[in-house]
Amino acid sequence: MRKPDPHVLSKSTFMSGLQCEKKLFLNKYQRHLKGDLTAAQQAIFSQGTAVGDLACQLFPGGVDCTPASYFDFQAAVVKTHECINAGETVIYEAAFQFDGVLAAMDMLVKSDEGWKAYEVKSSTSVSDTYRMDASLQYYVITNSGIPLKDIAIVHINNQYTKRGEINIQELFTIHSIHEDVLQRLPSIPSEIKRLKDIITDKKEPSIPIGPHCTSPYTCDFKEHCWQKIPAYSVFDIKYARGVDWKLYQKGILKTSDIPDDYPLNPRQKIQVSADKTGVSIIDKNEISSFLETLQYPIYHLDFETFSTAVPAYNNSRPYQQLVFQYSLHKQETSNSNAEHFEFLADPALGDQREDLIKQMIIDCGDYGDILVYNIGFERGKMNDLAIQFPKYANALQQLISRLKDLMLPFQQKHYYTPAMKGSYSIKHVLPALVPSLSYNDLEIKEGGTASNTFSQMVQGNFEGNISQTRLHLLKYCERDTWAMVKILEKLYQL
Questions:
Q1: How far, in Å, CA of 256 to CA of 277, rounded?
Q2: How far is CA 194 from the centre of its chain?
Q3: H-run or E-run covering 188
Q4: pTM higher than 0.90 for the full model?
Q5: Looking at residues 162-188, what average pLDDT do you find?
Q6: What is the DSSP string of 73-120?
Q7: Where are the alpha helices (DSSP H) in 315-417?
Q8: From CA 81, how far away is CA 67, in angstroms rounded?
Q9: Is 343 a residue whose pLDDT tops 90?
């Protein structure tokens, strides 16, 4: 076959257009307005690629039609048809084009029943978005002359537990969506026409911001479209549940402009009131009651975790949050200096969770409260460790029984200051209470970066200086528990 003309729509631009017509237009004509990829987004893309490569083992021995150049998908279309005509029965990245629409399928497999198409996702379930983009793929492939007996989503089985070598058949779940695709198929041509018209008209659609900016995914152009929204706005109201959009539609952008009689829940009222007056709201009685519950010595504890789609360690599941690091500051009394302890696993040594458990049990001593920030997280990780390392279960349950949550006074708005900007995250509470202390001087400034960094090390694709980066990881985690020491100190000073 001859090489087709460049496509007008692809699967990704089709889905962009369904989310927002303006997103489609900007992606075509003003791509420079895209926001930079975050480290978390880059990690997701890398993980998706790795999962896709691994899924090929479900149907081994195939021919890869991935184009040599990212911009030459038409060559991949030609190669795909050549492979089909040559009698190939397993094709990876099979590309098809029909009526100016390009679609590439992760795996195209011919069985005794006929051709079946498989799209690989690194998620653990089948979303409506996946069903819709598969419908477009089905439309393009079948109209290219390839009848499909089935189309399915291949996704991660979150019930799988690694025991020894990865079992590919158990790691993945194959979920047929053929019937659902057939029901959606009649709407595809009209949607294609509508979106192609937007591209050919070359006129930017007038689409106001809305919930679609973050659903089903946060738009790459959100920063551009939201540039008139203040850095701190009604969209920072905690647990807004639609209140933010109702206020926006009334032309209210700043929390300080919200009418006094506007219906808000009690915690939202505290936030808005403080924003309006600029006065901190401090319930000293509630804070004193919290402080009176604390029993010294106090151990300020923080975990760092990582997760991978493909389990990295034995007895772990896909996307399970695995503890690889902790920081601990110990105070004998409220006035005493803090003693620091820490543990950071070495990826080169494999699974060191047992070593971490043993060291943590020693470092936390036999009595005294263990103070954390967001008790649900640390308690959950300790429970996971107890299940996976049952010989330490009793000791870990003892530690769990000693946990107290430093986040509570801020979560319950017993202490709120406008500088917190509606959040009770430690990243907002710390600079609000202790302006001289923040995370800005650190190379690693937040948990997502720490998690992604260690994950890359475990998977063997980290490109930086490992020794230096380990020091950055230690400094970051230490900052979290030192922040807790200083925040508690401020509460005692009230």
A1: 8
A2: 32
A3: helix 188-201
A4: yes
A5: 97
A6: HHHHHHHHHHHHHTT-SEEEEEEEEETTEEEEEEEEEEETTEEEEEEE
A7: 353-363, 375-388, 393-401, 408-411
A8: 13
A9: yes
